[in-house]
Design a protein that fits this description.
80 residues; alpha+beta; 3 helices; 12% strand
């Protein structure tokens, strides 16, 4: 399977978040700490699994989000 690379649709934005398949956990942790809060290991495990599954199914090797979209995903995923 050849995975496609998604180009940054926000080239003029300083707060675009890229999450790469091969660096998923690190990218999530870095962006979460910068734009939301530090995540627990269990939270990182959970979100990494979900994002990697979505990327694999779509055959993309990365995804780009604005920081606002990233925060929305985190808030939705971890709401009580």
């Amino acid at each position: 399977m050849t995975m496609r690379t998604y180009k940054n649709p926000y080239p003029d934005s300083e707060d675009a978040v890229e999450i790469r398949f091969d660096h998923c956990r690190e990218d999530i942790a870095k962006a979460a700490q910068e734009y939301w809060r530090e995540m627990t290991e269990a939270e990182l495990d959970d979100l990494q699994e979900e994002i990697m599954r979505a990327l694999a199914v779509s055959e993309w090797q990365n995804i780009w989000l604005t920081s606002a979209a990233f925060i929305t995903v985190l808030a939705y995923h971890f709401h009580d």
